[in-house]
Amino acid sequence: MTQPAGKEVRNRTKTKTVLHILLKVIVAVVIAILLFIAIVYTTNKISSYTEQKRLEPYGQYVSVDGKQMNVFIQGQGEETIVILPGYGTAAPALDFKPLISELIPYYKVVVIEPFGYGLSDQTQKGRSTANIVSEIHEALQSLHIDRYILMGHSISGIYSLDYVNQYPNEVRAFIGLDSSVPSLSERKIDPSEIEPIKWFRNLGFPRLQLKLSADPYDGLPYDEQTKEQLNIVRHKNMYNTTQLNEAVSMYSNFKAAEQLTFPPHLPVLFFVQANHPVTDRWIPEHEKQIEESVHGEMVLLDAGHYLYRSHPKEISEKIMDFTGGIK
């Protein structure tokens, strides 16, 4: 009669041993995870502090809506080109450097770094197209720039549609660099979706993410100093609250732009990637945008979305040809 009881005791002992080992493993895993997070957090804090000492200011600040917006100006040409960046471009004035270098012998080039980009302040103000356009215009007005060609990359194509209709007497032409079109909208992002990203950012994981990602400037015409500065500003701005709020507003901004068209008499030049990786409607939708334009052209490039990085010379030469025809 005692044998079954002894077996039951041994089974309970084995179970307790297994549970004890399992508990130890779980505790060890939790400690390892917390230690890993602590290392990532600490490394990011220390790196961010040291990087800020190596950050070299560029451009000039202008007061916009009570905050500081950074604007980079180069070139002495009679014609002015104002460049607006695509979504998430960390340091526009540095990112556009290859194209700027090609343009400045012939144009005055003005790169706007909207709030949340480059060296500009962040803002709590909503990232509606109306607000973004108003802020860009206020920056240009404070610099007494009131006649120019507007150039926009990616999402700035949506903002520019509103801009050229708001200020038709200021914009001489629009140049789109693989610019977004209202009919191909981004998906709707709920505000709750950005909360985990804020935690991810605050714990310092974007630095690790960038460390494990491919270098977007590898093999392109950027010198080492510029690449270092770009990386510093990328670490500073990645997933900042202003840009996350812009992502939340993106869907409604696309929808609002569906009612807009380029004014027929406004010269429009598109540089478009010839083989879009996601949709076959990319080229046809750009063609629709200029079908009513008196002076509309589209140039297809065998390039990715950031075609101004890889094809600055071809873009610059075509811009000179195009602007020469609208004087």
Detailed description of the structure:
- The chain is 50% helix and 16% strand.
- It starts with a helix and ends with a helix.
- The radius of gyration is 26 Å and the shape is elongated.
- It is built from 12 helices and 8 strands.
- Helix 1 packs across helix 8 (224-237) and helix 4 (129-142) packs across helix 5.
- It has an 8-stranded mixed beta sheet, with helices on both faces.
- The longest helix has 53 residues, at 2-54.
- It has helices at residues 2-54, 92-95, 97-103, 129-142, 156-166, 195-202, 205-212, 224-237, 241-257, 282-290, 307-310, 312-324; strands at residues 60-64, 67-74, 79-84, 107-113, 148-153, 171-177, 268-273, 296-301.
- Strand 7 (268-273), helix 10 (282-290) and strand 8 form a beta-alpha-beta unit.
- By secondary structure, the protein is α/β, with parallel strands linked by helices.
Work out the number of β strands. Answer: 8
Count of helical stretches? 12
Query: Mean of residue pLDDT?
Result: 94
Order of helices and strands: HEEEHHEHEHEHHHHEHEHH
Beta percentage is 15-25%
Cα-atom radius of gyration = 26 Å
Structural class assignment: alpha/beta
Report helical residue fraction: 40-55%
Low-pLDDT runs of 5+ residues are none
Shape category: elongated
Strand order of the largest sheet: 1-2-4-3-5-6-7-8
The description of the largest β-sheet is: 8 strands, mixed
Distance between the termini: 108 Å
